[in-house]
Structures
1.
Amino acid sequence: KNEVEQSPQNLTAQEGEFITINCSYSVGISALHWLQQHPGGGIVSLFMLSSGKKKHGRLIATINIQEKHSSLHITASHPRDSAVYICAVRWNTGNQFYFGTGTSLTVIP
Amino acid sequence: EAQVTQNPRYLITVTGKKLTVTCSQNMNHEYMSWYRQDPGLGLRQIYYSMNVEVTDKGDVPEGYKVSRKEKRNFPLILESPSPNQTSLYFCASSARLAGGNSEQYFGPGTRLTVT
């Protein structure tokens, strides 16, 4: 049973659109990570959150600990944002990481 | 340049032939981990290490072994590979985990096919 759920699974957007990807989890966490995986496979860490909100360029990540929910927003989307975005959590009871199955984003020029 | 390296990047092997995938990081990170990625299942943790000589099972450890004799290296060993271990494997490291959190740095991946 996957206790980290992402939505949507697939997303197609026009260039310039505002994009939101969601991640929900089932139990308390010590940290949540957003990762980006481009075609070809390499994985890059975008954000690590334990509370609040972080911003880097056009990317914004938020987390609501009480609701067990995080969102990744992309403003003014661009074709180079096309990738799979993955949510990963570390439960507050251990040192393992658990992953969502990813959101595949395609941004059309 | 700070990086996590994995070798080999691609490997095709036969059932039962022991193999090792190496992982090395040059950032003096304490935490290292191995993941496998399969279509529809996403990333799953195989083993992780909090520091030298400290390793622990992740979600899917069956059929794998690891060792952490030096801080920079964390090899993944498949003693008797089987076709269900065909997958894309990632090694990752981070500065610390105990008492805090740090971002993970991922290696480029190793695509393993077991026939």
2.
Amino acid sequence: EVQLVESGGGLVQPGGSLRLSCAVSGFNFNDHWMSWVRQAPGKGLDWVANIRADGSEAIYAGSVKGRFTISRDNAKNSLFLQMNNLRAEDTAVFYCVTDSPGLGMRYWGQGTLVTVSS
Amino acid sequence: QSVLTQPPSVSAATGQKVTISCFGGDSNIGTKYVSWYQHLPGTAPKLLIYDNNKRPSGIPDRFSGSKSGTSATLAIAGLQPGDEADYYCGTWDMSLSTGVFGGGTKLTVL
């Protein structure tokens, strides 16, 4: 059974940092590009970043570039999102999802809530 | 303001067919494959259509996708109450070099 389980969300003050994790099982993690997608309260889906299967390249949305870093550990079947200098507008549920070319965003986690507030 | 434009809401009666449009441009839908996602509140989004018109295993053929030029369409036939959800189109934008989604369409089954 395919499982993606996010963790690391919580309440953080503006300017603070959080590191999200996504533990993957049930498929060959090493073969898949991965993305983070978020949904702010009452808003739509918002693409955040993705990373190649081998971790050699990462791309970011303009709104998070320079503040967020996506990474992966293929030996531990894990995806990460380091979020620094958080802003109120980063408040959202963050989902990890497979995002390999030609396959669509196929497997999604249940999401982890990040709240940025003082 | 989303790069891809969807109607905020659509509605149709149980058993009927509904279509949801997604309008983009040359740098996204015009040159890249489109995917469609179903999202019920509190759950993980679900992939319905990828590569414009392909269905993952387990997705019924009531769901179909098409693309023409810089627009894409999701069609849902034989509407069921369980189809009430938010629907999103998504693709890659070559100019932005980022993934992009439509703003989402809320489907109401009457």
